[in-house]
Amino acid sequence: MELKVEFKHVPVMLGEVIEALNIKKNGKYIDCTVGGGGHSYEIAKRLTNGKLYCFDRDSEAIETSKNRLKEFGDKVEFIKANFKEAPKIVQEKVDGILIDLGVSSHQIDEGERGFSFLHNGRLDMRMGQDEEIQTAYDIVNFASEDKLKEIFFKYGEEAFSKTIAKNIVKARAEKKIETTFELRDIIENSMPKKVVYSRGGASKKVFQALRIVVNGELDNLEKTLTSFIDMLNPGGRLVVLSFHSLEDRIVKNVFKRESTDCLCPPKTPICICGHKKKVILVNRKPITASEEELKVNSRSSSAKLRVVERV
Q: 109: which of 35, 120, 128, 239 is 20 to 30 A away, CA to CA?
């Protein structure tokens, strides 16, 4: 008997995202991570003769969203692929692109996926479960101590990276680290108890770092953002939801660069770079979740929304 998977999904900053996209009823749009289809549904229902391309690496997300958006018929096309492949797959100009860089509620809450230290399951963390890539188990059990320390510090900004890496290597010499709870216990035992109790999720930074590396979340993100800007029609918008400082910094820097005419050093008497701005900043500072949303959706607390419009 086939078990039906419930794909729980709470779209972050839904109202702000839809407003930022400035949807045209005949426009063409891309949702780079369709997830449970929350953002996509609101985009699709505003289209008449428009088109929405929905990307996701997760087969469950694609199937769930197909069912949720079936009322829109051919207006919506689903593509199982990493959104970074979108410029090659959607070979036409579009009027809006949404990138939600977060992990879906479903992926976090399903313990078997290995994303969360709150649910016990095998260390995995692949967003696409059928992708033949290294898992969190592979990294934790086979990366060198120096490499683990680098991953935790660079991608998780974890202050106790050195001690955690040392204790992982020590533990795996006795027995392979197979589950999220086993890893969580090692992490928490590598910190002073007062830190563990004060953080309210002491393992969060290490789990985040592993997830980023497993899925290559920051790989070529700068190049992808630039390619997406080139895909936009004049007046089209690129809307990005990020959830930690590393992502947001990349988005901020690309948007700043592409909204600036000249990139020459300040003391250069005349422009020699020839760079011309491609976008304008719709919001100079990131938009964050409202107090009302924070009360009902705690996962929106770290969300930052940045928007640019093609000139």
A: 239
pTM: 0.86
- ∠ CA 8-102-299, nearest 5°, is 65
Name the residue among 242, 244, 258, 250 with its Cα closest to residue 308.
258
What single DSSP character describes residue 5? P
Six token digits for residue 229: 């800007």
On whether the CB atoms of residues 121 and 174 are closer than 8 A, the answer is no
* pLDDT tens-place string over residues 98-138: 999 976 555 554 545 555 766 788 998 887 777 778 999 99
Pairwise CA distance, residues 251 & 271, whole Å:
25
Among the listed residues 85, 84, 88, 113, the one whose alpha carbon sits nearest the alpha carbon of residue 101? 84
Please give the average per-residue pLDDT across 21-46, as a whole number. 97
- The torsion defined by the Cα of 31, 34, 37 and 40, in degrees rounded to 10, comes to 0
Q: Check pLDDT > 90 for residue 33.
A: yes
**Are residues 39 and 64 in contact, defined by beta-carbon separation less than 8 angstroms?**
no
What are the angstrom distances between the C-alpha of 237 and each of 19, 76, 162, 288, 293? 11, 19, 42, 18, 24
Query: Strand 279-281 to strand 304-310: parallel, antiparallel, or no bridges (unpaired)?
Result: antiparallel
- For residue 294, give Cα distances in angstroms to 21, 31, 235, 288, 299: 22, 23, 31, 10, 8
